[in-house]
């Protein structure tokens, strides 16, 4: 009797469905990987394109082409927002896998990108107005007030610092080329461009040379970063 009841109970027992949480986690991770890859492929090259298309920096030329100056800076700001989305996705992927040092590095890189976004927005909005009324002041130390100075200084410290930390992090996990390209490119673009702008003046083409030399490897580094974290098999811990 007991054996008959046991068999009956076993026959009536159904296997519970697998929990949905595991599938939802996999789907979410896959979506983040796709987002990281897509934003890296867009953000890096778009950034390079806007740097190449950057108009002349002296006040008289900016006043003559204020709309184009504002447009190129708007597009560059958008590219930085896309890059920030990429970094946020990478941060989400490694949050529970890597150590606190890696998370701190990504937060620093993300903060630097957003500060540079603020600098570009400030530049694109402030300089065309200044160029209209006082073109000789544009891109000179005399035109830097407290608010603008804080943005410029913070961005020129945190942005290249984040790039250098990314270099060290990616090299540690076997992604040497992506790290070197991001670190070298970001530092040359940010520090080289700013130093040459205030050192040689807004009429010099040296600033454009520095920024393009830096933006090219920086953009390629982002593409490699997206390919690395866009794969199902990511960096090994």
UniProtKB/TrEMBL annotation:
Entry keywords, A to Z: Membrane, Transmembrane, Transmembrane helix
Residue ranges, annotated region (Disordered): 1-28
Transmembrane among keywords: yes
Record-annotated Major facilitator superfamily (MFS) profile domain positions: 104-237
Molecular function as annotated in GO: transmembrane transporter activity
InterPro entries, A to Z: MFS_dom
Transmembrane segments: 38-57, 77-95, 102-122, 150-170, 177-200, 206-225
Compositional bias segments (type: Basic and acidic residues): 1-11
Name assigned to this protein: Major facilitator superfamily (MFS) profile domain-containing protein
Organism: Microbispora bryophytorum
